[in-house]
Please model this.
Amino acid sequence: MNQQQTRNHFIDAIRGFAAINMAVFHFLYDVFIIYEKNPHWYSLPKVHLWQQAICQTLIFLSGFVWQWGIRGNLRRGMRFNGYGFLITIITLAVIPSESIWFGILNFMGCAVLLLLGLQTVLKKIPPVCGLAVNFLLFVLCKQIQYGSIGIGSVFRIQVPAVLYSVKILTSFGFPFAGFRSSDYFPLLPWIFLYLCGYFFNRILQEHRVMECSLWQRAARYQVPVLSAVGSRTIWIYLLHQPVCMLVCYLVFGNIGIPH
Model:
């Protein structure tokens, strides 16, 4: 199937479902955390699992579809970074306490551009091996921003503290002391999950899964609302939070906004 000629509505639907969940999650975050209706909400384990499921789905799918838009990836990567910097400026101006530094849009932009530079090398890696290694690295590096790599209490190594003293390394996954961002997605560990999506796509292509009739029927099927939302995810990223804050303001006014 030529992805440039036929849009994959199946992938759009999954992405749309994740994007809607993201919007709902951020609305509840605004209500419970920014407006302080339930300050302990964000620390609940089930809320953490929900948040991780949303972001991991979006990042994995972004890596999965990377090679389908390869001709426009340079422009797409620059645009994502531009949007990310714009969100940083807006959050600094409107709600400094909830400012966003290197959020998911900046990560997406950098990941798109990084794969452009690495595509020659990546093509030489067997996709099954690439998927397995990157999944392992993602698991191992999941806590790197907190100073260690490993798996739970079974295996853990402390990362040299000097890496967390260089501010420019914050975007790579080594936040400096006192760093705070309400949406932080550094290259480590998230680039490994992005690459998992990339290699999983290649596995399906090598096994000709995308050429089978079942996949093609699913790709053509538009799930009402979800497929439409999934094809416009970037606008959901950009607009959902201002809309959520407007609704909160209309309902709650200025009560609970930190000063």
Remarks:
- The two ends are 53 Å apart (CA to CA).
